[in-house]
Records
---
Amino acid sequence: MTELETKLGYAFKDASLLETALTTPACRMDRSDVEDNQRLEFLGDAVFGLLSADAVFAAYPWEREGTLTVRRTHLVSGAALAEAAERIGLRDHLKRNAGAAPLAPRAKALADAMEAVMGATWLDGGLDAARKVFGKLDLPIDEKLNEWSENPKGHLQVLAQARHPPRKPEYVVDKSEGPSHAPTVTVTVSVAGFGSATATAGSQRAAEVAAAASLLEKLEARSDLKIPGDQIADGQQGGPFAF
């Protein structure tokens, strides 16, 4: 069993499936005949959908469909899968094109490869194998849920507009490096009275989302600002604005 298989908790009978799952589309820049992981990614996305639905259904028997849907989406979001890929060291095993720039934290290629690995696992060992790998990934099934979990930019904008006078988040691209198919983008968001935060990701949009989430974390720690309480899908809401 290889180091990666040990971390996945599953030994592949057909090692070529795992090799394909780790082959990014960028490899086709060097070899046009290489089989990349996109087909396995497509399959793995569906497998993650099934397993995540099963997991949240079992973990939250009292919750309604709407909240379960949000939880399922959050559980296997691109960010969650990229973080899982980082935890198991998947980036060290990816096959990329010669001279490729280092992947940004939480890069989309990591989430895509994680889905591809799950697709390969399903083909190699079926549902039981997929469940084993899913259980090893430590996905955020117990994470506290609020209405803004998937939309930190929207949350930040609502908070900024509630100030007197209303403010608007400003996003600035500090730098963009790497090839067009795999860029590394750094963005800073700032709001008057709130401060600023900077994040790096594999696209401008992803970097903006990460920067907004980072600034929200800073705001939650400030004693001079009251951030609205969590609002979950059934309509219950916490404390009010206090600006």
---
Amino acid sequence: MKNIIIHVDMDAFYASVEMRDDPSLRGRPLIIGALPSERGVVATASYEARKFGVHSGMNIKEAYRLCPRGIYRHPDFEKYSGVSHQLHEIWNTYASASEYIALDEAYLDVTAQAVDIEGARRIAGEIKRRTREELHLSCSVGVGYSKTAAKTASEEKKPDGYFEITSPEAFVDLIIDRKVGVLYTVGSRTAERLGRIGINTVRDVRERQDDVIRLLGKHGRWITQLAYGIDDRKVTPYRMEDAKSVSREITFQEDVDNYQLLDDVLVLLALCVVHRVGRTGLHGKGVTLKITYADMKNITRSRLVTSADSPAVIYRESLDMLRQIEHRPVRLIGAGVYNLSSDIGRQMVMDDYLEETSSERDRIIEDRLSQLGEHYGLDFASNLDKIYKSNTLHRTVEYMRRHF
């Protein structure tokens, strides 16, 4: 093979970590995500829970209907992130380039290290062995001549499986009579659009290429290439400096029609966004506000600013945009920054001399945190390091909603 790519995918990662750390959960239907009494979705489910039809992304109410005797737990992202770092240390040993898709999934370019298919099998075996022996977890590994082939292979024998697809011909032979959803980037909506014109399988895509391209344009051209096993994408390591935007958002357990509460939440979201952006070393020049109303209508507002490096600026601009939208019950609120770059140098303009100083901006946030502390009886200022963590942020906002 010209390129040898490995795709590693952990088996029910969040659930597996919880079962590893609490043996009493083993063999039981475990659902990680929202609790049945809350609003939210399933993050992942153990294979025991999947037998009841529970799967990632499912509404938690539907999951509970299917599996009322399951064990439901909130995700512990800090713990999963730590385990993910350990996994990356193992996987990176064998790759010249690693592209992480999520905490539990990665593409590895092992062309130089493996040399041939025998070498790739040896590396795949080592990855599975070390993941099992060092972290007491299982993973499924696929070897392929391309990224699409490797990912398809890793899904072929789950859980704890191994499979290889060494050529476009082998790839096509495997998937030609499967539903179009097997092709990378073909989601349920795309599959539905293709189905309306009678294209349901990969074979149909190959036989009606012109129709696919006419319907889907550039995306359709990509899909027809995949149907022939053509995928020249490289394994590309993710770089923080390539990020275009950073945001944080909160879904409320009950719809919120109190816009003063939304004002308070924006203070915390602005702080969280700046904390996250600070780890990238980038600088933002735009602020965004995202709202999902109770009827699931989404709106996004944005505006350019001189600099979005301050929580006070993000808070002020997002609050101003919040005041200008239609006020009705809100399900989700988010704030973020965009136009990220490493360039901090710019020409001074007259507005710079009229804006508040950095100390004045700091004082705005300090005053708001003090006000929040008095209103909710919490010491926000001394616990920001905890609030930056997703679990604590969600618990804090839910407490604020109940005690406004």
---
Amino acid sequence: MKGYFKFLTLILAISLLCSCGKATNADNGTLDSKGTLDSVTEMSNVPESEQIEALATFSKEKKSHSYGVAKDGKPHEISVTAQKYFEDNSFNAFCLDTVSTDKVLYLTFDCGYENGYTSKILDVLKEKNVPAAFFCTLNEVKDNPELINRMIAEGHIVGNHSVTHPSFAEISREQMKTEIQGFEDYLKENFNGYCEPYFRFPKGEYTDEALNLVGSMGYSSVFWSLSYADWDTSAQKGADYAYEKVIARLHPGAVILLHSVSSDNAGAMAKIIDEARAQGYEFRSLRDFGK
């Protein structure tokens, strides 16, 4: 019965895709190129009690994303294992590109609030022609419309980081929906219908049920395989420190998480990009993940 319920849940996830989600090929009965789902049946034929039970098969155990410290140009095994877990369980989530054979990097920033460095980071990205994703909370979007408009105009992704930045391992399924939908609705209403299907869990905390919920709303959950302790604005250690930490941990397929509140990151960004390219890396948008 477990397999049956998981099958039902996959169908439900497809049927609930929001307008912000990526296009799928569900019309011809396939979920992805691997043939994960060969046929689609109507959920209306399934009793509501069984639909609820199917959802209940997803664990509510709290997890904190772990990625390990990559070195020697290779991702840490923790990141490799996490990526495999997402794939094996058909979660629309990723932390590491294991498909592309190129030396690709995906640059992402978490933007919980504005600390005066985002515009400088955007200046560098524009000069270097590097795409990035900025995962913003609703307050960041409301308080800084000029920055958000600039991100959009310059081709970056403005990702969903929730309304109030709660732990998604500690709130109800309905609260999760409200956090995601509230951000999406505001973005669409105030930025000419703009919306991108990428979500990042606040604090990196989640459950399998939360992963399922995010996917059912048409979003990809974006984790990371490279980061360092850069978020504490009272403990910045200088641009050289940021540069050394990031460059030492580069690896093909890395999803890089940095925080835009960091003066260290702003100061090191140009040098990080130049050195990564000197090592043969290419920066790509999350829109091209796994291609």
